[in-house]
Amino acid sequence: MQNRLTPNFAFADMVPDHALGSRVWSTEGREYIDLAGGIAVNALGHCHPALVAALTAQAHKLWHVSNLYTTEAAQALAQRLTEHSFADKVFFCNSGAEANEAAFKLARKYARDHAGAHKHEIIACTNAFHGRTLFTVSVGGQPKYSADFAPLPAGITHIPFNDVAALRAAIGPQTCAVVVEPIQGESGVLPASAEFLQAARALCDEHNALLVLDEVQTGIGRTGKLFAYEHYGVEPDILTSAKALGGGFPIGAMLASERVAASLSVGSHGSTFGGNPLACAVACAAFDIINQPHTLAQVAAQGQKLQAALRQLGERSGVFAQVRGQGLLIGAVLAEPYQGRAGELVAAALQHGLMVLVAGPNVLRLAPSLLLNDEDLDAGMARLRAAVADFQVA
């Protein structure tokens, strides 16, 4: 197949053709076990019948009407999200980057509305990831993603992740928002400490700043709760969601309290496709399955099994120094002799019929279907063991 796409992606040496559950088949007919989940997107696996039915039914009713109108599907999804979170209002868009872009714009506008133009600083964490727009890549704090696009937006300060003292030293009357991922996904599956998130909440209250939680990867059941903030005993002022929200159909959402959302006045922000009826109908169906006690319990249980299997593999092979994460967002840190080679291990796994991810050069990342069953988990780990054996002699 001739590749006619821009060269910013390095495609794997296989082309997926069709899939079901946690199994994928290539155009050559080879079967793969998917523990990557489309980078934490395919929360119910591939082609879940409830999602297919919801999409099909909506496709026969209404595809697009723009944001000159609202739709029953958009209102139904917003109702689900607000009834089961801290939030009162929802803004729909198409991706996590767009959700974060909206969150950062709202944080600045809220501060301008209530305090004035001087209160515009956003404090974020080094090695964070918030998207690929110019604003979000600047907030992300990873020069490898932003350096080529300078000059970057100003008014952004970065502090070390989980460093309460650094946050306390940085925040002040100029700060409009503190932005945190409950688990830094792209940078190695690093969970925030309870101390850090609780301090962030308290310091934001003290300095009249907003706490923004980027739950694009951790939200919608990924950690064993609907949202990861529920593990920490804090509530944000703004939260962003995408990935698992649509179960594979593109959608993003920014959730906010009524007090904060009021600053997103008519005409202040928009999205042509945001709240698309197809996306919202699918997301409603996905939400109704994910936000069930037995589904969330399954995520926690299977996450523990997967972490235990990875630790056992690490102990026996010496390839992993640490396994960390929450629910079904897991990072296996390569031991010192294998540092920098996570991409090679991913390639070896693919050769053995297993789809996994990296989280930086030193961490193997797994973000499978929230419905991952024992058969697929065990088969996936068997393939990973074979891949590790090849990787270690390469």
Automatic annotation (TrEMBL):
Catalytic activity: N(2)-acetyl-L-ornithine + 2-oxoglutarate = N-acetyl-L-glutamate 5-semialdehyde + L-glutamate
Binding site for N(2)-acetyl-L-ornithine: 132, 271
SUPFAM superfamilies in alphabetical order: PLP-dependent transferases (SSF53383)
Main location: cytoplasm
Any further remark recorded for this protein: May also have succinyldiaminopimelate aminotransferase activity, thus carrying out the corresponding step in lysine biosynthesis.
Taxonomic lineage: Bacteria, Pseudomonadati, Pseudomonadota, Betaproteobacteria, Neisseriales
The protein's name in its UniProt record: Acetylornithine aminotransferase
A GO term from the CC aspect: cytoplasm
Cofactor(s) it depends on: pyridoxal 5'-phosphate
Species whose genome carries this gene: Paralysiella testudinis
Residues bound to pyridoxal 5'-phosphate: 96-97, 129, 214-217, 272
The organism's place on the tree of life at top rank: Bacteria
